[in-house]
């Protein structure tokens, strides 16, 4: 979950069929029952009467419970529907895991994804705390699998980003494979977050490595961005 627990987005879980035969699912707020937030049970209930073959999932969340996020992501992937994810403001922490359910992940230019290692509060003796640390490492492997389905780099490169609790702009997310398309801005404002020098260094190195490949692919897709525009962006991270 994200450590910015003082930040709050009003809860919203709403699914509806559209006139064009598709469906929309809105997920906003904190992830997990412990926070009175978005839960697997509520998402399943909201989708229970949706028969559309395509569902567009809109996400705006700072995150929350990791396993709740994984459960929701897996549920969406198993719907036997085409899942299009749109990040309306921010998809941080557990919410970024949910976003990985998308067959296509779309981000307006003013939105962000934030990824990091799982963490928890704990109390106990040395033996108990060591076990908790071991369990957290196993949890990290679980979330890595979610990201690796989209991420352009290696597991070690992904871990470097997770270690730095990395915030990615929409353009950066596309370059690294954690999103597929840049789209026009929505009316939901993104949330700026401070980026440390070490985090920026890890991110810049990976963008330099994978940005050229992504830019080449995007040059054939006008819905994303022109090659010229991406080249100007890439220069900012050299």
TrEMBL record:
<dbReference type="InterPro" id="IPR029045">
    <property type="entry name" value="ClpP/crotonase-like_dom_sf"/>
</dbReference>
<keyword id="KW-0378">Hydrolase</keyword>
<dbReference type="GO" id="GO:0004252">
    <property type="term" value="F:serine-type endopeptidase activity"/>
</dbReference>
<keyword id="KW-0720">Serine protease</keyword>
<dbReference type="GO" id="GO:0009368">
    <property type="term" value="C:endopeptidase Clp complex"/>
</dbReference>
<dbReference type="GO" id="GO:0006515">
    <property type="term" value="P:protein quality control for misfolded or incompletely synthesized proteins"/>
</dbReference>
<keyword id="KW-0645">Protease</keyword>
<comment type="similarity">
    <text>Belongs to the peptidase S14 family.</text>
</comment>
<dbReference type="GO" id="GO:0004176">
    <property type="term" value="F:ATP-dependent peptidase activity"/>
</dbReference>
<dbReference type="InterPro" id="IPR001907">
    <property type="entry name" value="ClpP"/>
</dbReference>
<dbReference type="GO" id="GO:0051117">
    <property type="term" value="F:ATPase binding"/>
</dbReference>
<dbReference type="Pfam" id="PF00574">
    <property type="entry name" value="CLP_protease"/>
</dbReference>
<keyword id="KW-0963">Cytoplasm</keyword>
<protein>
    <recommendedName>
        <fullName>ATP-dependent Clp protease proteolytic subunit</fullName>
    </recommendedName>
</protein>
<dbReference type="InterPro" id="IPR023562">
    <property type="entry name" value="ClpP/TepA"/>
</dbReference>
């Amino acid at each position: 979950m994200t450590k910015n627990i003082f930040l709050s987005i009003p809860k919203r879980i709403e699914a509806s069929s559209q006139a064009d035969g598709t469906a929309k699912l809105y997920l906003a707020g904190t992830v997990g029952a412990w926070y009175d937030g978005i839960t697997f049970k509520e998402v399943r209930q909201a989708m229970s009467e949706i028969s559309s073959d395509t569902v567009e999932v809109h996400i705006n969340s700072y995150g929350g419970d990791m396993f709740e996020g994984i459960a929701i992501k897996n549920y969406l992937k198993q719907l036997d529907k085409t899942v299009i994810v749109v990040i309306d403001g921010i998809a941080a922490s557990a919410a970024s895991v949910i976003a990985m359910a998308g067959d296509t992940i779309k981000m307006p230019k003013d939105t962000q994804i934030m990824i990091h290692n799982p963490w928890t509060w704990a109390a106990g003796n040395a033996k108990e705390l060591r076990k908790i640390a071991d369990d957290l490492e196993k949890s990290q492997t679980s979330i890595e699998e979610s990201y690796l389905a989209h991420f352009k780099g290696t597991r070690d490169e992904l871990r470097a980003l997770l270690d730095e609790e990395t915030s990615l702009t929409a353009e950066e997310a596309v370059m690294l494979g954690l999103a597929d398309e840049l789209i026009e801005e929505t009316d939901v404002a993104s949330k700026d977050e401070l980026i440390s020098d070490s985090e920026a260094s890890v991110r810049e190195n990976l963008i330099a490595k994978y940005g050229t490949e992504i830019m080449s692919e995007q040059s054939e897709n006008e819905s994303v961005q022109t090659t010229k525009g991406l080249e100007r962006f890439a220069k900012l991270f050299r």
